[in-house]
Amino acid sequence: MDLKPETLAEIEAAIPKYPEAQSAVMPLLHAIQKDQGFISNEAAEWVAEKLGIAPINVLSVVTFYPFFRQHKIGKRHIRVCRTLSCAMAGGSKVCDKMLAEFETELNQVSPGGEVTVEFAECLASCGSAPVMLVDEDLHENLTVEKAKEICDKIKAEAKS
Amino acid sequence: MAIHPKEQRLVLKYADEPGYTPHIDSYLAHGGYDMLKKAVTMEPQAIIDEVKASTLRGRGGAGFPCGLKWSFVDRKSGKPIYLICNCDESEPGTFKDRQIVHKDPHQLIEGMMISCFANNVAKAFIYIREEMPYGAKILDQAILEAKEKGFVGDNVLGSGYSCDIVVHRGAAAYICGEETGLIESLEGKRANPRIKPPYFPAVLGLYNCPTIVNNVETLCNAVHILDLGAEGFKKIGRPNNAGTRIWCVSGGVQRPGYYEVGEMTLGELVYDVCGGPLPGRSIKAIIPGGSSMKILKNGERYKGKNPDGSEYDWGLEDIPLDYDGIAAAGSMSGSGGMMVLDDTVSIPAALANLMAFYSHESCGQCTPCREGSLWLKKITSRMVHGQARPEDVDLMLDVAGQIAGRTICAFGFAVAWPVQSYIAKFEDEFREYAAHLSDPNADRQAIKELACNG
What we know:
heterodimer; A: alpha+beta; Arc Repressor Mutant, subunit A; Glutaredoxin; four-stranded mixed β-sheet; 7 helices; 4 strands; B: alpha/beta; Rossmann fold; Ubiquitin-like (UB roll); de novo design (two linked rop proteins); 3 domains; 11 strands
């Protein structure tokens, strides 16, 4: 495992926060996914050894939680809310626009590698629907036009 | 967000004030942590008694009395007692905890510290959903600031009492909002809810130790109960519904958003505060407390007897906007996430949207829920795609009936209630779909977009 020094520091700081080591599984997976983009089998085994638990106990967590993934995604992670309030406000059209702009399909890495567009379940911002997350940033009150602007920005950043 | 004159802000009093930041200086400048200073001079039991006397009910969904929950905690086990703040806010329609965490995190920390002191807790956790990454950072920073000032950590305010707070991030699973699923998740496992009995958190919670799990808004109210006193707190709202509530309104209204109110009717919130339906539209139905709650149809009459024997006969707009009022209308105020469906909304399509949600979020532990929710997704999906079968409505009711009450946790009800209530109140609309008789003029594209389930 080739982890960045700051990732290792984050991991070392996380473990003693918990009365029992296994509780640190999720913080460790968060740190590693941020570092490596996804959770490999090697990473799951590394976490297991670090915490003194069986690898299956790490993999069972990785496969349960939608945020943890075992495969690479595009450079930017786009999650468009699909749940009722956003759907009533046009979330579906926003998602279609994102897919069309990057000539991709749901849950796929776009041909240029810029993005992976997914549907997300309720992002808890229904009053400013429709919304989506671009990595950690929440975009609210979206329209197809606003979605286009966000796509243009992502494309420009991907080129630079 | 601008504060509506009909609001009565307590928890969100400063959140939207110009210049107010999540930094501790803002909070301190507004009397922040004064109630914690008061708390540490009190007997812990006196705080519990005050919260009990306030009749504060949980703001997360079930509305269980907070003081009573605290009184169930096993204090004789010799094990540590844990407190967990449930900030997994993920009930569709709900976005109130987001406001508190992002704008006034110290109020939550103060509420937690008062609650921890009262219950002799030395370690507390905030379980925050993954989709609020900035919220987690803001809380981490706020805890650091509070530690520097002696409000959190060792020897709080020189009282000899010590308590640490740890922020724990989820990973996009709705079921972590269920308290025992949350506990499993915090132990580093799949969030499969535990069976009760024996796993009542107050006795066998985190690491099989006594544990209190409270919602963000509930914990913030601990500050205001100490400030106003139980009697003062009870002056807000109707008896048994004390305090303000933050309502999150989304969907077909002119001014969606979050509104903290005392006593008012559903009609005052939707029409006066939120401006009513969009121009040219009318309100068809309201999901009052998050997507799991039974739907209320506009035009229905809600009749029954009050506790004092008098009778009530309400239209949708007359329903008192609190736990007991909405319960009397046959639904629940839940997490305060109100979704307004206007006359452009197809009810079967709305149900298809929600069934896609529930089938995605079922933890998979109990067969009726795992299989049933997916089955319901498939039926509702084919319905909106013009491939309904004549037996579908009855089949949906059958499947929903096999889920409700037959699972380890309340998620089973959350799947079944929308199916059962939408069909009960909009059966014609479903039958039309099921018989391939949907309006030939119906905009099927719009229906597919609303279902939004692939």
